[in-house]
Amino acid sequence: MMKPSRGWARLLCPKIAREEHHSSRKETGSFTEFIMTRPAEGLAHDKLFSPESLRKYVMSSAHDTTTGSHLGIKKTREKIMSDFYWPGIYNDVTRYCRSCDICPKTLYNETSSRIPDVSSQTRDDPDVPSYVAVVEDCDYEADKGHVQDNLTGDEQGSEDLPEIGTWGQKEDVAIVKIGEALTYDQNRELQLLVQRFSEIFSDRPGDTNLAEHRIDLTSDVPVRQTPYPVPFTLKSSLKKEIQQMEDLGIIREIDSSYASPVVVVKKKDGSNRICIDFRRLNKITVTDPQPVPSPAESFLGMSEDKYFSKLDLTKGYHQIRVRPSDVHRTAFVTMDVGGTLASPGGTLQEFESGQPSCETKKCELGATQVDFLGHRLGRGTVGLQDCNVEKVKDAPRPTTKKDIRSFLGLFGYYQPFIPNFAVVAAPLSDLTRKGQPNKIVLGEPQERAYAALKKAVISKPILVLPDVNKEFVLRTDASDIGLGATLLQNRDGHIFPVAYASRKLLDRERRYSVMERECLGNVWGIKKFALYLYGKQFTLQTDHRPLEFLKVYKFDNPRIMRWVLALQSFVFRVEHIKGRVMWELIFLAEFLYNILKIYY
């Protein structure tokens, strides 16, 4: 007959004592001692029969205490069955281990260790060795490379590893919040329910067969839109999100005549959500209205309810498949969010694999400056090509409405180089209004505007290229005619313009108060340069002192309050500057050209 060691069982029930002779049944404390035999193997085991009232205490002592160390299901079951037995012990131990709140299998935290620090728990008996002492008693004389045997002994096998998991391995077992007001039995029941349906709790979107999305259109004309610009701070996030969606099988590359732009919006937790602007597609989509109950209707009948449960789908809209014949209609496009090939060798290798040909006399390699898209780039600056400056210099004097529009269109392409372009060109643009004669005669205001625009371009203005790693400064101003904004950056102790922007005021906007126009200029300027400013700290400079408290003062004017709320997604500080500094910006481009003309 095999004798049990009864080491941990003696700690559990101090009244148990070894006896050389065992009768078939003896009463020992609250447990009943009996002999279990295996006729086929000719073995007999001396065990304790646990009553139902003490089984939970036995499992807790074998699994939760310092000696238990929160082992897996198999190890805990073997430990208990070495000294105890009762009907249904397999299922009871399995359910208890799976419902444990500490085991890594049930709760997963990426920042915590895989094995809980059981040495910090309250010890039931001072004679029980601590968790560290157990490790120190291991045999380190085993062969090198057998770390598993050193730390766990021969009893630990590969079949136990799935119960423990791998270090650093992310599990799909979700952490489901359970109400704190529940009783122990209610909490255990819900934990078992979560374990039973654990496959539906995952951070990966599922593929439901409950519904299929159909897109029926009223027109067969494809809908195409150019992609929206993506702020620099969101490019890496957008690229990562698109790659994850592709890896999950939510999206794939496709050739389609439809194309909708991507919009990036902030979620409540600060992360980004990728949305598609399907407004133009929705206009030609056959609607299938489904009645949705209002919140008031949903709350009916809940007055007597005490406990509530909420299930939130993982990327719910991505779990519904689109009808195969409609997939091409959901195509979307983005601006290039990848990096540039800084090495000519890498670029040429791409051309070699794609097999396009390049015209030799028009190619340049290793140049300090280059003409590109009507601009001259080099040494951190951007200017105008000489040939385009000559076109402006030789532009004929406009005599008709069409000539005025062509003249303004020519200068409009270089509007970022001309401070207050809209205000300066206002006398000319007013001649194109409805009701004005087709044949025009330039008066004194138009002559001054014509000469000022030509001079601004002929002087070859230069702007610095934006550096997204440095802080931007935005200066805004408003007049009775229009709005102006200048984006600047500090380079080597000097502040230089990155771009200019301006627009005329609408008729209703000209009736705004001074403070409203100045605030409108701030909002419009920030939105205009959101490509550079979104997601970064910047300085907003204004010559209107009351707007210095734009972010802290509660304005009584509802229009200004709406504008203030529209700027909540931007991070900036407001700084007041004198009005004469704003007018100095008009001459800043010419000054920059004079100190950098050596590059040209």
TrEMBL record:
<dbReference type="InterPro" id="IPR041373">
    <property type="entry name" value="RT_RNaseH"/>
</dbReference>
<keyword id="KW-0695">RNA-directed DNA polymerase</keyword>
<dbReference type="Pfam" id="PF17917">
    <property type="entry name" value="RT_RNaseH"/>
</dbReference>
<feature type="domain" description="Reverse transcriptase">
    <location>
        <begin position="265"/>
        <end position="335"/>
    </location>
</feature>
<feature type="region of interest" description="Disordered">
    <location>
        <begin position="145"/>
        <end position="164"/>
    </location>
</feature>
<protein>
    <submittedName>
        <fullName>Uncharacterized protein</fullName>
    </submittedName>
</protein>
<dbReference type="GO" id="GO:0003964">
    <property type="term" value="F:RNA-directed DNA polymerase activity"/>
</dbReference>
<dbReference type="GO" id="GO:0004519">
    <property type="term" value="F:endonuclease activity"/>
</dbReference>
<feature type="domain" description="Integrase zinc-binding">
    <location>
        <begin position="51"/>
        <end position="105"/>
    </location>
</feature>
<keyword id="KW-0808">Transferase</keyword>
<feature type="domain" description="Reverse transcriptase RNase H-like">
    <location>
        <begin position="467"/>
        <end position="570"/>
    </location>
</feature>
<dbReference type="InterPro" id="IPR043502">
    <property type="entry name" value="DNA/RNA_pol_sf"/>
</dbReference>
<dbReference type="InterPro" id="IPR000477">
    <property type="entry name" value="RT_dom"/>
</dbReference>
<dbReference type="InterPro" id="IPR041588">
    <property type="entry name" value="Integrase_H2C2"/>
</dbReference>
<dbReference type="Pfam" id="PF00078">
    <property type="entry name" value="RVT_1"/>
</dbReference>
<keyword id="KW-0378">Hydrolase</keyword>
<keyword id="KW-0255">Endonuclease</keyword>
<dbReference type="InterPro" id="IPR043128">
    <property type="entry name" value="Rev_trsase/Diguanyl_cyclase"/>
</dbReference>
<keyword id="KW-0548">Nucleotidyltransferase</keyword>
<keyword id="KW-0540">Nuclease</keyword>
<dbReference type="InterPro" id="IPR050951">
    <property type="entry name" value="Retrovirus_Pol_polyprotein"/>
</dbReference>
<dbReference type="GO" id="GO:0016787">
    <property type="term" value="F:hydrolase activity"/>
</dbReference>
<dbReference type="Pfam" id="PF17921">
    <property type="entry name" value="Integrase_H2C2"/>
</dbReference>
